[in-house]
Amino acid sequence: MVKLDVITTRGGDGGQTSLGDGTRLRKDALRIQAIGEVDELNATIGLLRLQADPEADAMLARLQNDLFDLGADLCMPGTGEGLRMTEAQCLRLEREVAAMNEAIPPLRSFVLPGGTPAAAYAHLARTVARRAERSVVALAAAEPVNPEAVRWLNRASDHLFVLSRRFNGNGAGDVLWVPGGNR
């Protein structure tokens, strides 16, 4: 169980922070950057939830909880002990994407971010997910990282994209790219 009774510790005043195993790292370290971008994604999804219907809100709540699991995974160096992302979490996202996508016609062009407010927020969350994924990939190139962490972020961005289309009337309100349309 997590217990936080003191929030201002002054431990980070010198530009360092602690990982779950007690290791101290600079706040600009790759691992801390990745954890921060995962946290930013979680906050962005919190904004998206303000626009969501109950079914989408439940999916987004699961995403947010998984993002805390992902942060816990990343705050423990290596791939050994600790709370780790699992294949089951990735498979759940795949099932949700497939279920949402059944009602949506195939794309004939790229989708521009926009449409309904909910869809626009979902696109914003998708781009933050991609940035977090790039940071975790960069971290994985430098030191061991649970491969399910990268896989989960990739699935989460797919999930947010399909959810944006769902919010746009199952694709009917998508704003489509018109190649060369302004020449």
TrEMBL record:
Residues 7-165 form the Cobalamin adenosyltransferase-like domain. Keywords: ATP-binding, Cobalamin biosynthesis, Nucleotide-binding, Transferase. SUPFAM superfamilies: Cobalamin adenosyltransferase-like (SSF89028). GO terms for molecular function: corrinoid adenosyltransferase activity. Pathway: Cofactor biosynthesis; adenosylcobalamin biosynthesis; adenosylcobalamin from cob(II)yrinate a,c-diamide: step 2/7. Pfam families: Cob_adeno_trans. It is an enzyme of class 2 (transferase). It catalyses: 2 cob(II)yrinate a,c diamide + reduced [electron-transfer flavoprotein] + 2 ATP = 2 adenosylcob(III)yrinate a,c-diamide + 2 triphosphate + oxidized [electron-transfer flavoprotein] + 3 H(+); 2 cob(II)alamin + reduced [electron-transfer flavoprotein] + 2 ATP = 2 adenosylcob(III)alamin + 2 triphosphate + oxidized [electron-transfer flavoprotein] + 3 H(+). Its EC number is 2.5.1.17. Belongs to the Cob(I)alamin adenosyltransferase family. PANTHER family: CORRINOID ADENOSYLTRANSFERASE (PTHR12213), CORRINOID ADENOSYLTRANSFERASE MMAB (PTHR12213:SF0). This is Corrinoid adenosyltransferase.
